[in-house]
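S., here's the first fold you wanted:
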Amino acid sequence: MRYKGKGNIREYIMEMSNLASKLKALKLELSDDLLMHLVLISLPTHFGQLKVSYNTQKDKWTLNELISHCVQEEERQQREKTESVHLASSSQNRKRKNNKDVVERTFQQKKVKKDENTHTCFFCKKPGHMKK
C-alpha cells in the first residue's frame, strides 16, 4: 500500500494504523517501529526531507508525532507549489507586457519616420530631408 499524494496524509496513516490493528486481531501483531517504517517507506519521494530528519534523530517518533510531521510537510509542499504557480503566472504577464511595449515602440518609430518627410532641410530649404 503506497501513498499516491491524493487525499489527506493523515487519513492515509490512520488507515495504515487501522490495518495494523486488524492484523493484531488476527494475531499477526506489528510493532510500532515496524508500522512507522512501513509508513515512511510508502511515502513518495517528495517526502524525502521528512525521511532524512526521522533517520537522523536519536529519538523515535510516536504515531501521532509522525502524523503531525507529515501533515506539516504536506502543507509546506502545497505552499511552495502555489508560490511557484504565482511566480510562473507573473513572469508570463511581464513577457506579454514587454511584447506589447515593443509593438508600441515600433509603431511610434514608424510614425516619426512619416513626420520626417514633412520637415524641410535647414540648409537647402527642400522638404523631405534634414541636414545633420
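And the second, which I think is the more interesting of the pair:
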Amino acid sequence: MKHFIDFYLGKAPNQEGVTIEEILAYSDEELERHHNFIQWLFPLTTPSSVNPHVPLVTPKIIAAFKENRALQDQLLRATKVMLHFYGLTFSKDQVLKDKTFQEKKHRIAGHNLLRITRILKSLVLLGQPELSLCLFICLCNIAQDEMPELQSTIDQHWRNASHY
C-alpha cells in the first residue's frame, strides 16, 4: 500500500521507474503509445493482464483516498489528463466535449474502451462516484448524438462500471 500511495503523492516512482508527474506530463501521443500507465493512475481491485505487477486497490487504499485531499487532487489531475486525451473536459460538475473533440473522438474506441471502463470503475472505488457518473453521462450523450457504435459498450460495460 505504502509504495502505491507514495507513487500517487509524487514521493516515489512506480515499478518501471516512472513518476506520476512524468505520466501526467505525457503528450497525447505518449498516452496512446504507452499501455502500462493507466493501471497506476486508475487502479482496480482486480489484476490487469497488461500490467499484473501494479498494486491492487485494497480497503486501506480506498480509505486513504477518501480521507486524503492530496490523493483526491491527484486523482482529479489524472482524470483531467485522460479527459483531455479524449477531447473532453471537466467543468462545474459536468464532463463536456471540448474544442478538440472532433479530432480526438476516434480515441473513444479500440483499446481505449477498456481504459475508459477502468477510469469509470476506479473513480467510484477511490471516492469520486459523481465524477464517474458525469463521465458516463457525457459518453451516453456522445453515443446518442454522434457515435452510436458506443451503445453496446455503454450497455455491456460502462453502465455497470459507473454504478449507474
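Why I say that: The radius of gyration is 15 Å. The first strand starts at residue 88 and ends at 91.

Talk tomorrow,
H.
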